[in-house]
Design goal:
about 140 residues; alpha+beta; disordered N terminus
């Protein structure tokens, strides 16, 4: 295991994948593991994990709210708090919500962060869908 992996960690890929040829779980490491961890945090509802009921940031509570300054501020606060508690490998630099695709039912959540161990700056855009997926 190289030095970078030891600092940043390795875990199951998200969503979980299995290799039929190798007969094992596909793993993710380094920056990819952090990106996948952030996706898990942002997509998990409070109470969804039985053994850790306060894990996640519960954005689904805001699904039918008007997208005004109060709602955006609450969403950003929930995201910051969840990442602070459940992703200790990073420092959040900023969180913003891009409304350019709101009429399509999508909010783009931009998370800029710094990896503590390597001092690398990264960003992630998480699409939050306000409407159910439909078959076209």
């Amino acid at each position: 295991m190289n030095q970078k992996v030891a600092f940043l960690g390795t875990g199951w890929s998200f969503p979980p994948e299995f290799s039929p040829q190798l007969g094992e779980v596909i793993m993710s490491s380094d920056e990819q593991d952090i990106q996948e961890s952030l996706s898990i945090i942002l997509s998990t509802k409070l109470g969804e994990r039985v053994m850790l009921p306060i894990f996640g940031c519960n954005l689904d509570d805001l699904l039918f709210e008007n997208l005004d300054l109060t709602t955006k501020t609450l969403a950003i606060e929930r995201i910051n708090d969840a990442i602070l508690y459940y992703e200790p490998r990073i420092n959040v630099l900023s969180v913003s919500i891009n409304e350019s695709r709101e009429l399509e039912g999508v909010l783009l959540i931009n998370v800029d962060y710094q990896i503590r161990a390597t001092n690398s700056r990264m960003n992630m855009v998480y699409p939050f869908y306000k409407i159910e997926a439909t078959e076209r």
